[in-house]
Amino acid sequence: MANESKQRILLVEDEADLRNTLKLNLKEQGYKVSTAGNGFEGLEKAREKTPDLIILDLMLPGMDGLSLMRALRQDSDVPVLMLTARTSEMDKIVGLETGADDYLTKPFSLGELLARVRALLRRAERTTVRDVMTSGGITLDLVSRRAMAGDEPLNLSPKEFSLLAELMRHERAVLSRDLLLTRVWGYDYMGDTRTVDVHIRWLREKIEQDPSRPMLLQTVRGIGYRFDGSGTNDESE
Question: How confident is the model over 193-208, as pLDDT tens digits?
């Protein structure tokens, strides 16, 4: 059945025959489809077109798919379906940890690709309610990028906001310093993990009642940090 919502898909694939075949079939399903033949063009169109989903080949000329995802994830949570000719488990893990939401190994069937596209778009629709997150008295509006502590506005820097949003998005999950660096600062950031520690300290000064005894932004020794809106800290610093 054709998709009546006219959701926007960006297809980044350097193989012209495959790109044209997928574009034709996606359009027949009712999607609006833009295409790019290399990574640089793909990143430009991703930022210009604001697609609802990106289908991204891992092996691209100029800027490869992993580099494109790293750049994209600095300011976008758009779902990404990664296409790869590589079959090793490590390649898939790297792709998923870099920011892909799902992957398909070439060759694949058109039916499987369409099923995964529909599943990712349904998942994205369900998570749109997370444009505003509230926990532990902290509210983040991810669209306007405004932060509140109760009824009081919080003056957060862009990186402080992104770091807090990442932790709140995965509430109670322990996120390592390396993962936070990748998600917030980008994979190609040349600094070290102490950058995360410094920003956590600044955030605690702004959102904790007693920054010396943090209840919301908790340290898990030897691993990283977690956000817990319940205000119960069972971990020692």
Answer: 788 999 999 999 999 9
